[in-house]
Amino acid sequence: MSLRISEIFHSIQGESSFAGWPCVFVRLAGCGHGCLYCDTRYAEEEGSLMELDDIVRRVAEIGAPIVEITGGEPLEQRDSLLLMRMLCDRGETVLLETAGFLSVADVDPRIHCIIDLKTPSSGVSEKNNPENVALALARKRLCEFKIVVADRDDYLWAKELLQSTGLPDVSTVLMGVVYGRLDPAELAGWILSDRLRIRMQLQLHKYIWNPAQRGV
Ligand code: SF4
């Protein structure tokens, strides 16, 4: 069994409650959802086929405290579910980063799911899959949610969603800015003023390295 892989690389996890940990990233190729602020368009290219055993071996060779399966959209390739199980069975701490358009119901419960909630400025917020929020509210998966905000309208949309669902009561919610589009200090002010019980985050890797650099 194989997966189409865009790249496998060693970096610092930059956007989740695991931010700061050295991490092996397995970036699967393919997505096509067309988020307007996508910063990994190259992952839409075809990528190279790799056997699951070879991916697991490569992850072990690099050696890091955590491994993240990302994309593109990893759940579009169903064998990613098997890869994640194989990595868990080896005792790895495994993160899945997904755009949140597909349900995580079939993902192994040992996986830490980092699920985007796409805001209106992404152009695709209507594709957010409500089943993922429902799974989190029912505490059926290890989920945290990531919201990227480009402007005040995005923020108000997110605030309404969080308050109407009560999501911050059951899951970690991380909110950050679209790099270069919104001043982080402005977002921090809104969060504090509204007393939101969420975590603010910056895309750590973009402050360590050149923000346009691939493979970080
Ligand atoms: S889901 Fe992710 S990879 Fe796909 S277009 Fe949106 S930001 Fe880019």
Report on the architecture of this protein.
This protein is an alpha/beta fold and 216 residues long. The chain has one domain (2-208): TIM Barrel (Alpha-Beta Barrel). The chain has 6 helices and 9 strands, in the order E-E-E-H-E-H-E-E-H-E-H-E-H-E-H. The protein has a 9-stranded mixed β-sheet. It binds iron/sulfur cluster. Iron/sulfur cluster binds at residues 31, 33-35, 38, 40, 43, 71-73, 99.
Q: How many strands, which pairing sense, and closed or not: the largest β-sheet? A: 9 strands, mixed
Task: List ligands, each type once.
Answer: iron/sulfur cluster
Q: Tell me, rounded to a whole number, the average pLDDT.
A: 94
| Fraction in helix | 25-40%
**Broad shape:** globular
Order of helices and strands: EEEHEHEEHEHEHEH
The CATH C-level name is Alpha Beta
Given helix and strand content, the structural type is alpha/beta
What would you report as the Rg, rounded to the nearest angstrom? 17 Å
Quantity of strands, as a count: 9
- The CATH superfamily name is Aldolase class I
- Beta fraction of the residues? 25-35%
